[in-house]
């Protein structure tokens, strides 16, 4: 048997694998299991994937000997339960770990620095706990792909020394207590709801493959770097609720993959970007809270209408270019005449019918004028003496 999904008390986990030595994958997720988390006494060398997530009532500390009992385990998912206490540093003995998930529990204390040295760990999710302390320098290793640490109590100064310079798929440090500046070489970043300060570095434009950048609810100052326009793959950009100033770079309209955008509640000034490409889909909510930002002209090109002394638009720099209007009207009229002439030339029947209706129309108009318009007096006198 390679995979098991079942319900019951979590206590049977201590004996079930021992009686199923060929078990490789053991799934007990979403089963409403409860009780104290226990593992077998004797090693089980075949188990590679253990998932007991989203039960809600499994409690107790994470067993420090879990890597001894399951020496070949590659994926451990403990999320959505009531695990408490500190993360045991002995988890670093699970040298085959690819995935370690323990989000939405009650874990406390610091993240053991040994965890960051796991040689094959690619996904780490410890979000929604009560973890505290600082992140060690160089915690992002070359093999890391996704790191989720949001909604904890992590703090300390976050600088580029925290990173080794390798690319990540996702780094979520939102809703913590970090201070300092931000990293420069991350491909997907969520640093929202911290206390990060300083300017957003120009080097952030080097992240050509980044898809999500969320720096909202921090204390960033200075201008929005125009180099953000180099992030050609970005889909979501949120710089709201900071102290950014200056104008919104016009180059941002070149971000054709952008589907979500906000610079709300900053100190920006000048004009909003033109309503072109993706920016035609963003409404006033993307810009609100900037007192000196002008978003009242949602047109493709800036307009400078002039008014003559009598209060009327002189038509020279107004909303309508009158010369272009007359030219286009004239061309349209000539085109209509040419089309009619071509049709009449090709089809003799239509030509005969055309001239017939033209004659009838002229005759009708003539008698209408004679019958309804006022005849001058001299013509009346001439008619009486005739």
How would you characterize this protein structure?
The protein has 386 residues and is of the alpha/beta class. It has 2 domains: 3-294, Ribonuclease Inhibitor (Leucine-rich repeat, LRR (right-handed beta-alpha superhelix), Alpha-Beta Horseshoe), CATH 3.80.10.10; 322-384, no CATH class. The protein has 4 helices and 24 strands. Strands 1-2-4-6-8-10-12-14-16-18-20-22 form a 12-stranded parallel sheet, with no helix packed on it. A 12-stranded parallel sheet has the order 3-5-7-9-11-13-15-17-19-21-23-24, with no helix packed on it. Helix 2 crosses helix 3. It starts with a strand and ends with a helix. Residues 1-8, 297-320 and 375-386 have low confidence and may be disordered.
């Amino acid at each position: 048997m390679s995979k098991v999904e079942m319900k019951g008390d979590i206590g049977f986990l201590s004996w079930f694998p021992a009686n199923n030595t060929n078990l490789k994958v053991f799934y007990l997720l979403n089963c409403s299991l409860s009780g104290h988390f226990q593992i077998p006494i004797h090693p089980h060398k075949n188990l590679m994937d253990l998932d007991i997530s989203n039960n809600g009532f499994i409690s107790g500390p994470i067993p420090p000997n879990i890597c001894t009992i399951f020496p070949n385990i590659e994926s451990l998912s403990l999320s959505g339960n009531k695990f408490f206490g500190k993360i045991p540093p002995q988890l670093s003995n699970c040298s085959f770990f690819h995935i370690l998930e323990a989000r939405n529990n009650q874990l406390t204390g610091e993240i053991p620095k040994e965890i960051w040295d796991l040689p094959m760990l690619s996904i780490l999710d410890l979000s929604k706990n009560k973890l505290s302390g600082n992140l060690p320098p160089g915690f992002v290793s070359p093999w890391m792909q996704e790191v989720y640490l949001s909604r904890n109590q992590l703090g300390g100064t976050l600088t580029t020394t925290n990173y080794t310079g390798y690319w990540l798929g996702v780094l979520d440090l939102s809703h913590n207590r970090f201070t300092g500046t931000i990293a420069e070489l991350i491909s997907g970043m969520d640093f929202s709801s911290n206390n990060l300060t300083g300017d957003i570095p120009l080097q952030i434009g080097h992240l050509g493959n980044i898809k999500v950048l969320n720096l909202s609810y921090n204390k960033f100052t200075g201008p929005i770097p125009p180099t953000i326009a180099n992030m050609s793959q970005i889909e979501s950009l949120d710089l709201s609720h900071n102290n950014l100033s200056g104008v919104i770079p016009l180059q941002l309209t070149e971000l054709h993959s952008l589907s979500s955008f906000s610079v709300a509640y900053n100190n920006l000034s000048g004009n909003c970007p033109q309503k072109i490409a993706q920016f035609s889909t963003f409404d006033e909510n993307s810009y609100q809270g900037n007192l000196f930002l002008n978003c009242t002209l949602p047109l493709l090109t800036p307009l400078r209408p002039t008014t003559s002394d009598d209060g009327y638009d002189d038509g020279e720099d107004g909303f309508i270019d009158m010369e272009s209007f007359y030219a286009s009207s004239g061309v349209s009229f000539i085109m209509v005449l040419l089309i009619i002439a071509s049709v009449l030339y090709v089809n003799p029947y239509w030509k005969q019918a055309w001239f017939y209706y033209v004659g009838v129309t002229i005759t009708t108009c003539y008698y209408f004028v004679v019958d309804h318009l006022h005849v001058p007096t001299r013509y009346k006198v001439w008619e009486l003496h005739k």
